[in-house]
Design brief:
The chain is mainly α and 587 residues long. The protein folds into three domains: 3-321, no CATH class; 330-448, Phosphate transport system protein phou homolog 2, domain 2 (Methane Monooxygenase Hydroxylase, Chain G, domain 1), CATH 1.20.58; 450-587, Methane Monooxygenase Hydroxylase, Chain G, domain 1, CATH 1.20.58.220. It is 78% helix and 0% strand. It is built from 26 helices and no strands. Helix 5 (81-94) packs antiparallel against helix 16 and helix 19 runs antiparallel to helix 20. It is elongated, with a radius of gyration of 32 Å. The protein starts with a helix and ends in an 8-residue tail after the last helix.
């Protein structure tokens, strides 16, 4: 094996690993966060958890990715330790799908049908289809499918390149002696563990072993212990992921390690004891690509069957190993950096917090407006505390959204991140205005100011309009109700008119001596606050409607909806104008 063969091997390995990464990334993007959400749902039984782990891992082709998700879920309080153990076992079997796909490279035969099944025959076609889908399509879904096809083709091409570069090894005496050393079970397990820990993927390390087996130089006696070690080595990824996590997430990583180590110890001891008694003849035979897939799968099935009844014991051992009290997860623990590798899922976690912000702000605003009629110190304190809480929501959520924005996002996720960043700012400002309304109510109470009957009626009418606009805005955004969102702008316009009319009414009463200048300052502050609340509601509604009109410019949207006197906007405007009519207003 000369320097050129080594360079070819390195190139083939690079293409193989990149193809595996590209295919896995395309699969995750195609799922659009749905798999992560599906995995995050609580499981009522061990069997359901097992199936969940198996299905999700078979789809995303990585048990490491699944276990890292579980570490994040537990760290965020979405799941608990006991729910993850059966999922991990399912993931261990699900990850064997990759080895079965790679086993197609070992297909041999002269018939046209068998040649057609060989990856070297159809993978170029898949690559071409993938390139066309990426270059000619505007659809994220089709581009993701294209990435999957190209990734698969590169995976197979890298496999073929590696195997062809290593053909000369079967006649190399030094390589043969090295393999004999690895046939020692302990040495083979250690080598498999270390190699897989370095590349952090059992699927990749199994694939490399399969490529090496195509040389016809790898006996079963060498392949079996290496495969066992590869299964232990894959646990390094969740271990590294859990280092910065809480006690519970570290226990999940410990459970991953124990499941694999116990499985390897039990299976290895049983197998080599039986081999010592019966002397299996296959141990000196060369292993095939298909045989490696079978061994890999059988190990994970057998170890799962053995360990599944003892899930409770695994949990207890993990707790004894990683000591400490269960840490209480706060509401922001769902903004876990581990989820940044799954942008769609991370966006969903941000949306959930934004929805919380909406509800807290709605509650504060409605409480604040109620203080205008009857001031209550307990309610006032609640509003101030909510405002401080909303500030934390804004800081944490905005910072996390910026992190997501730095990742490679689909067009939909990118739009969602932009929208949420705008909305978080608007809803925080509405919360600020709740405190402003509270201050107006406090000033009125402390100074003993009594508005005239007409002024009270005017204030009650615009207050009702503001309460309605905050309700329909939040309901529209949370439920993605576009028809409801379209009602915000006409109501905003009515509130603007009400502000103007109420000021005119005050000026008239001022002339008549029914109101004072001091009352005017307070009223003006309240009306300005209401107008700004309404404006922020308009911004939020427009951010929801932007995809429908294909623009990111608020002013363009407002011009669009007001362009035709006969459109829905003016019908709603007239209805709101009648609903919130001021009985004492005179032009």
């Amino acid at each position: 094996m000369d320097i050129f063969s080594i360079l070819t091997l390195i190139g083939g390995l690079a293409i193989f690993l990149y193809g595996m990464d590209l295919m896995g990334d395309g699969l995750k993007k195609l799922a659009g966060g749905q798999l992560e959400t599906f995995l995050g749902k609580l499981t009522s039984t061990k069997f359901k958890g097992f199936l969940l782990g198996l299905i999700v891992t078979a789809i995303i082709q990585s048990s490491s990715a699944t276990t890292v998700m579980l570490v994040g879920f537990v760290n965020s309080g979405i799941m608990n330790l006991s729910q993850t153990i059966s999922i991990i076992m399912g993931a261990n079997i699900g990850t064997t799908v990759t080895s079965w796909l790679l086993s197609m490279t070992g297909i041999e035969g002269a018939s046209f049908f068998l040649k057609l099944l060989k990856p070297e025959s159809f993978s170029p076609i898949l690559a071409l289809i993938g390139v066309v889908m990426i270059m000619a399509s505007d659809s994220d879904r089709r581009k993701n499918i294209g990435s999957i096809l190209i990734g698969f083709a590169l995976l197979m091409f890298g496999m073929e390149t590696m195997s062809s570069s290593m053909e000369g090894l079967k006649d190399n005496d030094a390589f043969t002696k090295l393999l004999i050393m690895f046939s020692n079970p302990v040495m083979g397990i250690i080598v498999g563990t270390l190699f897989t820990a370095i590349i952090q993927s059992s699927s990749a390390s199994i694939g490399i072993l399969q490529a090496l087996s195509l040389t016809g130089a790898i006996p079963y006696s060498t392949a079996i212990p290496i495969i066992l070690g590869q299964n232990i080595g894959t646990t390094i990824t969740p271990v590294l992921s859990a280092i910065s996590g809480n006690v519970q997430s570290k226990r999940v990583a410990a459970a991953c390690v124990y499941i694999k180590m116990i499985g390897v110890i039990v299976v290895a001891v049983a197998f080599y004891v039986l081999n010592a008694i019966f002397k299996f003849s296959i141990m000196d035979q060369n292993v095939s690509v298909l045989s490696i897939a079978i061994i890999h799968t059988l190990f994970n099935i057998i170890s799962t069957v053995i360990i599944m009844p003892f899930c409770g014991w695994i949990e207890k051992i993990s707790k004894k190993t990683i000591k400490g009290e269960k840490e209480k997860s706060d509401v922001f623990s769902t903004l876990d950096d581990r989820f940044l590798s799954m942008p769609s899922f991370a966006v969903e976690k941000c949306k959930a917090l934004v929805f919380d912000m909406f509800e807290i702000t709605r509650h504060s605003l409605l409480e604040a407006t109620s203080l205008l009629n009857k001031y209550d110190k307990a309610i006032a304190k609640d509003i101030v505390e909510n405002e401080a809480n909303i500030d934390k929501y804004e800081d944490k959520t905005s910072a996390y959204l910026v992190k997501i924005a730095g990742k490679e996002l689909s067009a939909n996720d990118s739009l969602e991140v932009t929208r949420l960043l705008h909305v978080v700012g608007d809803i925080e400002r509405v919360s600020d205005h709740s405190v402003n309304i509270l201050n107006v109510a406090r000033e009125v109470t402390e100074k003993g100011i009594i508005f005239s009957k007409e002024a009270v009626e005017d204030i009650n009418i615009i207050t009702s309009a503001v309460n309605e606009i905050i309700n329909i805005t939040i309901d529209a955004f949370v439920n993605e109700d576009y028809d409801l969102a379209k009602k915000v702008e006409p109501l905003d316009a009515v509130i603007d008119k009400l502000k103007y009319k109420i000021k005119n009414n005050h000026i008239k009463r001022l002339r008549d001596g029914d109101c004072t200048v001091e009352m005017g300052f307070i009223l003006s502050d309240l009306l300005t606050t209401y107008e700004r609340v309404s404006g922020h509601c308009s911004n939020i509604a427009v951010s929801l409607l932007e995809p429908e009109i294909e623009t990111l410019e608020t002013h363009d949207y407002l011009k669009h909806v007001k362009a035709d006197d006969e459109n829905e906007y003016f019908d709603d405007y007239k209805a709101y104008k009648q609903k919130y009519r001021l009985p004492h207003y005179e032009k």
